[in-house]
# Entry
Amino acid sequence: MKGDTAERVKTVAEINEKIREGNVCVVTAEEMKKIVEELGAEKAAEEVDVVTTGTFGAMCSTGVFLNFGHSDPPIRMQKVWLNDVEAYTGIAAVDAYLGATQQSEKSQEYGGAHVIQELVRGEEVELRAVSRGTDCYPEKEVRTVITLEDLNFAEMVNPRNAYQRYNAATNSSSRVLRTYMGTLLPNFGNVSFAGCGEISPLINDPDFRTIGVGTRIFLCGAKGFVVGHGTQHCPGYATLMVKGPLKEMKPEFMRAAYMPGYGVTMFVGIGVPIPVLDVEMARALAVRDEDIKTKIIDFGIQRRDRPVIREVTYAELKSGKVEINGEEVRVSPLSSVYLARRVMEELREMILRGDFLLTEPVERLKEGEPMKPLRVATKLVKSVMNKAVTVSPETDVRTAARLMIEKGLNHLPVVDGEGRLVGIITSWDIAKAVASGKTGRVGEIMTRKVITTHPNEAVEVAARKMESYDISALPVVDGSGKVLGIVTSEDLSKLLVR
Amino acid sequence: MLFRLKFDSKAVKKPVISMVTLKTSALVNIIRAEVGPRRGELIVEVDDEVADKVENAFRELGVEVCRLEKKVERSEECVHCGACVSICPVEAIVVEEDGRIEFLDKCVLCGNCVNVCPVRALSLPV
# Structure
């Protein structure tokens, strides 16, 4: 009958039956793309039952719920540290949540991720807990050594993992930036990107037909589940909240990490099996890196809405070089395609062995909504700046000194005939000039290289500039260098007492 | 072949690279250079066939020559993420077809990758 294959629907139950019988056809996402290319989507849908997808990347939103058991006398643990890394204890007496990015109180390069890794590797971890003591939990302090074996319960629960795609990063500024996207070299010196592109789970099921609440997944070597969509789940950038038993995880599918200058994070390996229910699914599974677009974002601008430098595909990013402003820029991946492949292969083996059955989602993931920003009152320089009293390079140093005394100022921007900034003099410059007998024109003693701000810069950024250059005022200039005002460290400290 | 050249205040005053080039007719490619008033340190590349000749010529001018035959060392901790790839000034770190990160022999031991590795898998050879 015509259209028979196009309408053909395989159910998850039928696929599971094949897994039990040992005649299921499972391929990795990479193999599936070739199969669809060679045989077409219809034939591929007929032949292939399950496609394994995978990712292995730094996922900060990772952590574990732990239950330590009760000591004698018992303690209600109000604060808990594991190898000096604090875990959250605002839950029941001996329960805690240890976040991967939580820093040790002793070293910034060690954190929750390292503790989780040591537990999975079977190593001993020091547990310290304190309490004020209650009638039912009299003990006030506990200090002992534990291993994963000793714990009653250890479940990894990650609020946001497995991004469908992620923005790439670059840096237009003139200094090296140490970010969660790795080290970004100045002047567009490099680009870094995260995500595994065409083999990533969510990119292969964009309508969430099979990945949903309750989907059984591969999480760091263990069988885990999708809890629901993750935090910051939004269109095109879907995420998953996942969980899985820590005691069944394998060290080779996770790795504690420290992004230099930024902080601790954790590489997590996630595999999701996608049942090929019909032709439409086979088509979605054929998605290629060439089709997956993302943006390169400029981390040189330290605001929430960082400028988009350009659109780019995962194929371009994976090629190792992208073009920015006509120049070839080298690219670093941050996710491991090599280990994502091992995840996909391991998951395939588990399914072929009959060790891993597929599930139907209990509920579909929602579409997601655009991310709402956190509203904080962003104070801009224009709201705190003052009118600047300016002088010209020709002004007599004595006149400038008198102006400072009369107006109670420590800084005078120096401008040309059109009001454009050419330098600055401070009361210190004048003191130095007097001490060395140079009391001629302002132009002879002024500082020519002036650090400036603009009216729409956030006051926090202006404050950071003053701090990093060790100065106490910034002339406020417009695009053409015309002086619009001045902002001083006193103006900023007034904000604090308001 | 890569050489690390170190020279003191005596040799630093002489145009050693040009002198060696004129004497040996070998092409000397400067990879990195730090030349101060009292001492200098250069990393240069020359063809393997002329390596001995060039090395001797530098030594005659009082330059300390060290052959860079080792490259950055990597431990089992490496997850092949590639954070190091774009940091390497001489493009000695590449992503292989199978997704593995490989270190090529042209490594100049600058140590940049060691400092950006998220899993501390890299180190300079002793």
Residues 263 and 435 of chain A are 48 Å apart (CA to CA). The first strand of chain A starts at residue 26 and ends at 28. Confidence is low (pLDDT under 50) at residues 1-5 of chain A. Chain A touches chain B at residues 56-58, 182-183, 185, 189-192, 255-260, 265, 267, 318, 320, 329-341 (CB under 8 Å).
